[in-house]
Amino acid sequence: MLTNHDLEKMVDTNDTWIRERTGIRERRIALPGVYTSTMASAALKEALDAAGMQPGALDMIICGTVTPDMPLPATAAFVQRQIGASGNCPSFDISAACAGFIYGLSIADAFIRTGKIRTAAVIGTEMLTRFMDFEDRNTCVLFGDGAGAVVVTADHDGRGILSTHLFTDGSLTDILQIPGGGSKEPASAETVAQKRHCIQMEGREVFKVAVRYLSEAAETALSTNGKKPEDVQLVAAHQANMRILSAVSKRVSIPIERFALNLESYGNTSSASIPISLDEAVRAGRVNDNDLVLMIALGGGISWGSALIRW
Ligand code: COA
């Protein structure tokens, strides 16, 4: 765990600024020897236990992540091996940053609807602290490590994923990036010295589009299904900043008390924040059968989306 007070000793920041500007008090940092895939596998095992299913039941494993174990192969392939799923189960990663979980959910839903598969694991798993410049106060106070997972199946009775909507605005690729280590700037002593392998963000620009796009995506999910804000029992939103969520809550007229929040304890866990907060809400008894659960997320790309679930 890394608290705001710990960060005060590392960069020119303070607990009050971080709490008031973001809502974060502390974040989790993965221990050495733990990787993006090992966190993902631990989360998926818990999801399979909760569903009463064995790894062999999975027809597909999708990992939303922009912090893979390594550029090749996919983190999902490591997960397949670690949990002992079938070798015939296609396993791949989705790169949609903080929206990776909703992108994964949408893909799983489409494969299940077309009858190509019956059961999919969708995981959000992210270890952004290993892509962090701990001398950059603009970013290092914001992020934490984590993973969450769900199992999606074809059995529903009118319950399940009602709709998903995905969006990308490629004109905004510059405001949130890890610029080095890819084909444009291959890893070299120079890219490392310049910390080009670390996350870079124009926070104010991201903030502005986040409020607008998340609200619009929430409204699209509701209007597509003929639902009103008061019909929603739980919002599992990507959590980057409490001020973003408060603004979205007001715009879409869903009280903040209906949001599943854990930003204070975990910081921004990128694609993992929705499945982690959903899991916590379910285990706390906040979600009942037939409740409407709204999911919204936005991240680098800029990519964003929404999903409406009948629980
Ligand atoms: N501690 C103390 N001061 C800090 C700081 C920190 N950790 N980080 C920035 N500041 C300073 C800035 O340097 C600036 O100082 P100046 O006015 O002297 O130039 C001041 O605080 C305000 O900076 P600004 O960037 O305008 O703050 P903000 O209110 O926009 O908050 C973020 C910054 C990053 C918290 C906020 O913009 C944010 O959350 N953006 C969206 C992030 C996000 O969603 N990212 C991922 C998408 S998944």
Description:
The mean pLDDT is 97. Helices cover 35% and strands 21% of the residues. It has helices spanning 4-8, 15-22, 36-51, 75-83, 100-113, 137-140, 189-193, 203-224, 242-252, 263-266, 273-283; strands spanning 2-3, 26-27, 60-64, 91-94, 119-126, 146-153, 160-168, 176-177, 200-201, 232-237, 292-299, 303-310. The strands form four sheets. It has a four-stranded mixed beta sheet, with helices on both faces. The chain has a four-stranded mixed beta sheet with strand order 7-12-11-10, sandwiched between helices. The longest helix has 22 residues, at 203-224. By secondary structure, the chain is of the alpha/beta class.
The succession of helices and strands, N to C, reads EHHEHEHEHEHEEEHEHEHHHEE
Average pLDDT works out at: 97
Give the uncertain stretches in residue-range form: none
Order the strands across the largest sheet as they lie in space: 4-3-5-6
Q: What is the alpha-carbon Rg in Å?
A: 19 Å
Q: Largest sheet, described in full?
A: 4 strands, mixed
Instruction: Specify the helix fraction band.
Output: 25-40%
Overall shape: it is: globular
Distance between the termini: 32 Å
Number of strands: 12
Q: Briefly note the structural class of the backbone.
A: alpha/beta
Tally the helices: what do you get?
A: 11
User: Cofactors and ligands present?
Assistant: coenzyme A
The percent range for strand residues is: 15-25%
